[in-house]
Amino acid sequence: MRASSGVPGFDAIVDGGFPENRLYVVSGPPGSGKTTFCSQFAAQGARNGEDVLYISMHETKEGIRRDMSGYDFGFDRALDTDRVTFLDSFSSDGRRFFGLPGERRDHSGVTNRLTGFINSRDIDRVVFDSTMLLRFLLDDDEDTMIQLLSSLKRTDATTLLISEMTDPSAYSEEHYLAHGVVFMHNYLEDDGMQRGIQVLKMRGTDVDTDIQGVEFTDGGLRVGSAATVSH
User: Global pTM?
Assistant: First the structure.
């Protein structure tokens, strides 16, 4: 079974969508469309009647609602349904999961609480924004990150991790542990800013690894069906 991304044109390059119940990383520089991509993924799940958990390490529910309200793919409306649970790491619920910077934290407890929540609520889709700030809250403990990511892989949810990366050849443990890596490109050319999307790997799937053109539309991100981007 495959989980549709909710991004027009993307599923066609990954053989119909993300293989379900696996862990994926969505990487790229700031402004390349990572949050929009993952919000479309979350909104698609809500439209399908699936249960979605969106974890933000840096944005409030109202902030993400405001940011996504300019698009018509419906994530802002989905936030008001019982299909989407939004967890802000600095809210009262978020502090219960993660603690606060500078506090003594039970790192293994973070993993147990999150995976316990996902399993007990039968969550179908998870978005985690972002691993950079998660590292900060976990005191950049590599062993804890590996434990958390390995545990997320064992849940029955399809999980997207947002990773702030600017170099598609620079890998960290989440890229090695993930079942798939999607890289969002953002670069200047003579005719202005160009954006692209590239599937670097997706286990068990015959994917097109060329950079595909991406544009922002009223409906969110759209992967161009025309020629690939030369870069």
Answer: 0.89
